[in-house]
Amino acid sequence: MTERVLNIKYQCLHPSCQVFCKKGEFVISESFFNELSTATDDEDTFKSPPGACRMGFSQQYRLIAVQEEGAETEAEGEAARESLGADDPLTMLKAEHQEVLKKLDTLEYQVRKRDLEGLWVTTSMIENDILLHSIKKEEDVLFPVVEKKIPAGANLMPIMKEDHVEFISILHGFRYALQDGEILDGILNTLIVNLRNHIKKEDEEFFHIVDEHLDNEDRKRIAEGMRKMEEEHVPLEPGDRKDKGLSPYSEDRKKLDAEIAALKSISSVGGEEMCCGGH
Predict the structure, then answer these.
(1) Any long-range contacts for 45-50 (C-beta under 8 Å, 24+ apart)?
(2) Residue 22 banded pLDDT, cuts 50, 70, 90
(3) pLDDT tens readout for residues 201-226
(4) Which terminal residue of the chain has fewer beta carbons within 10 Å of its beta carbon, N or C?
(5) How crowded is the C-beta side of 128, counted as CA atoms within 13 Å?
(6) ∠127-133-134 over CA atoms, to 5°?
(7) Average pLDDT value for residue range 10-30
(8) At what angle do helices 71-84 and 89-112 cross, to 10 degrees?
(9) Residue among 261, 229, 248 nearest 127 (CA)
(10) What's the rounded Cα separation, in Å, for the pair 34 and 32?
(11) How far is 158 from 262, CA to CA, in rounded Å?
């Protein structure tokens, strides 16, 4: 576990420091601070660290305030989010996640009922959600900002993008089978479990990291871009289940199928491709 780093505000208790250096501030590891605290008798005092005193020897400091380094940034992120309310982009994305989770519940009900037509329509709705929410709002609007604002952003994005492509690949494999009157329970269960895990990962981990690094202007710019994507998005219609080719074959779907083909090529073992979403 990474050790906490503390920001310490103090007051020197040496008489001469009432004029020269009465109060100060420094950053120190939690374990070292605990060591300095045990070196004095009073609970609200601690021994000054080496080199801190201008007089060249250890002094007794009174603790004024202690805060975990980085906590201020987190608090600022929370304040910025609250000021925008429902217009905060991360709040908007989390709300959309809840709508997707409701559709997954519907899928589970429909598969128990062996409802081919219902599954055909609901999976089309989920594909629209992935196109608009994951590809356009997240990948095209949010992710470029994250890559610039977060040091590890460039490493996080490929993981999220791979999840998105996998969802479309699995979804296509399931819908191809529906066209033949088959319900592939295993593929659907994989999609439902993976989507739920992905949403949890974003809501509880990824968005939390992003939230700490966005200021008000970042949030407004992202929210505006997301609204523009929503206005320009043309929803895919389910089409007739019995028409081969998953019509209508939109430009969005062509782009995603190209990405799926590239991913499958990388992931193939011994010349055999992944089983889901094969063309």
Answers:
(1) 45/13, 46/10, 48/12
(2) low
(3) 899 888 888 888 888 889 999 999 99
(4) N
(5) 17
(6) 80
(7) 68
(8) 70
(9) 248
(10) 5
(11) 14
Provide the residue type at 277 as one letter. Answer: G
Instruction: Say which amino acid occupies 274.
Output: M
How are strands ordered across the β-sheet holding 45-47?
A: 23-29, 5-12, 60-68, 45-47
- Hey, how many other C-beta atoms are within 10 angstroms of the C-beta on 234? 12
**Sign of the CA dihedral 138, 134, 88, 91?**
negative
pTM: 0.61
- The yes-or-no verdict on residue 79 having pLDDT over 60 is no
With beta carbons less than 8 A apart as the criterion, state whether 137 and 229 touch.
Answer: yes
| Each residue's pLDDT tens digit, 101-136 | 999 999 999 999 999 999 999 999 999 999 999 999
Q: How many residues does the chain have?
A: 279
- H and E: helices and strands count for the chain: 10, 4
| Residue of 204, 179, 52 lying closest to 124 (CA atoms) | 179
What does the block give as tokens for 222? 């992202």
What number of other Cβ atoms are within 10 A of residue 64's Cβ? 13
| Under 8 Å between Cβ of 236 and 250 | yes
Q: CA–CA separation, 211 vs 116, rounded Å?
A: 41
Distance CA 54, CA 173 (A): 71
Taking the CA of residue 145 as centre, how many other CA atoms within 13 Å lie in the half-sphere pointing to its CB? Answer: 25
